[in-house]
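Thread amino acids onto this structure.
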């Protein structure tokens, strides 16, 4: 069975879902049901509100921070390529996937709600982009199609991976935007702000965790075979301790730390049928046992249908076909099982997904709070010197063009570039996640 045929099955499943909804009288009214929240507006220019990403920018490069921070110029590129907004669409979908189980005894991910939210987010984002910058170029349309396909497959795969893990938790809340005063600065109005993707209770220990999703280019570095550097960067950063502190200001029962869930941005490989029967067991397969089982079941249902069993073949018949598919894929499944996953307590992962709890001790939380206060004081100081700090992070800096102007001695043209290619910042958190 080719990838094309499997895509056909996925599309067919979607059509059937819509037909069921229509039959129920619900008519395909998904779009009006999902209200996209506007981007979190940033505070007005000059407000003394410190965001963790702003603090990270400040520590990384004062010049970039000076152009982007709402404490200073508050600028962003006027137009960003649509696929770069992928992380936000996935976050939105994950939020909608978990909203329905808030307060329930056990966390459950509603894939259907997540997929509908993802598609709607992309559709509305395209509308906004067209309204802002005109019709899409062909390459942009192609990128959007790729992004849609990737997101749908990632969410389906995530649902399979997360199912057993979610049983360990109860969801107390999903996306929550907070703003808390920084101690000692109440009179100055200096506040710390951020967003929790969720708040969880570990059913075994009763401990609370902040849930934080991150999309990542890779989970494991292909170069070293170790955890990818973008993930290590997140884990070394201050976010986990700063969020842990903030949770103590917001909730009666503060969190022990942050439970990170990383999602690698690649689609799972499909079973590759061999000419002489069975499926490829090549060591290069990039997939997971759960995904193979899911796809093999779809293939079994399709074969049962082709066998003349009707649109909804009896379960026993599908099961027979499924057993046969599993038997043919034994070698491939053994390859995938061999490189399954890290699993130690709450640390669970494979090359697609990784769950990592970062618990924080009181001295770590205090150290980060000290940092917030000290760096925050510098950030709000009008006398703070502005200078560039170049490094690997320049690769994804959105202000490379004006920065290069200064480097080449054309300072007089910087304002023209900022006027032409940048506009007022409209978001609070960066939409584009960094890739190392
Ligand atoms: S390109 Fe590098 S040095 Fe220049 S503003 Fe960006 S991060 Fe700073």
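Threaded sequence (436 positions):
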């Amino acid at each position: 069975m080719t990838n094309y045929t499997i895509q056909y099955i996925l599309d067919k499943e979607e059509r059937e879902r819509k037909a069921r909804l229509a039959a129920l009288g619900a008519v395909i009214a998904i779009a009006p049901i999902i209200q996209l929240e506007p981007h979190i507006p940033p505070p007005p220019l000059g407000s003394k509100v410190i965001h963790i990403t702003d603090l990270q920018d400040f520590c990384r490069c004062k010049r970039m921070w000076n152009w982007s921070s709402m404490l200073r110029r508050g600028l962003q590129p006027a137009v960003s390529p649509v696929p770069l907004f992928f992380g936000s669409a996935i976050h939105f979908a994950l939020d909608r996937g978990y909203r329905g189980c808030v307060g329930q005894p056990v966390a459950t991910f509603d894939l259907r709600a997540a997929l509908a939210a993802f598609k709607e987010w992309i559709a509305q984002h395209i509308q906004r982009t067209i309204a802002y910058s005109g019709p899409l170029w062909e390459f942009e349309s192609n990128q959007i199609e790729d992004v849609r396909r990737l997101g749908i497959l990632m969410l389906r795969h995530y649902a399979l991976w997360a199912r057993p893990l979610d049983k360990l938790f109860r969801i107390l809340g999903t996306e929550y935007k907070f703003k808390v005063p920084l101690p000692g600065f109440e009179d100055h109005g200096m506040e710390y702000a951020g967003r929790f993707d969720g708040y969880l209770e570990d059913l075994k220990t009763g401990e609370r965790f902040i849930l934080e999703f991150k999309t990542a280019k890779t989970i494991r570095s292909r170069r070293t075979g170790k955890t990818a550097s973008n993930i290590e960067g997140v884990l070394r950063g201050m976010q986990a301790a700063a969020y842990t502190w903030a949770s103590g200001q917001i909730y009666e029962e503060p969190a022990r730390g942050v439970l990170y869930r990383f999602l690698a941005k690649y689609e799972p490989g499909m079973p590759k049928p061999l000419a002489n029967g069975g499926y490829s067991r090549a060591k290069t397969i990039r997939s997971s046992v759960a995904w193979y089982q899911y796809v093999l079941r779809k293939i079994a249902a399709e074969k049962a249908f082709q066998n003349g069993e009707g649109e909804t073949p009896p379960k026993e018949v599908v099961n027979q076909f499924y057993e046969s598919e599993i038997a043919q894929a034994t070698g491939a499944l053994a390859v995938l099982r061999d490189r399954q996953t890290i699993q130690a307590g709450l640390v669970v992962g494979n090359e697609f997904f990784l769950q990592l709890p970062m618990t924080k001790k009181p001295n770590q939380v205090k150290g980060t709070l000290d940092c917030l206060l000290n760096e925050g004081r510098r950030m709000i100081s009008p006398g703070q010197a502005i200078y560039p700090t170049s490094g690997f992070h320049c690769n994804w800096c959105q202000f490379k063009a004006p920065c290069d102007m200064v480097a080449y001695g054309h300072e007089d043209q910087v304002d023209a570039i900022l006027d032409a290619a940048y506009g007022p910042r409209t978001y609070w958190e960066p939409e584009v996640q960094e890739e190392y």
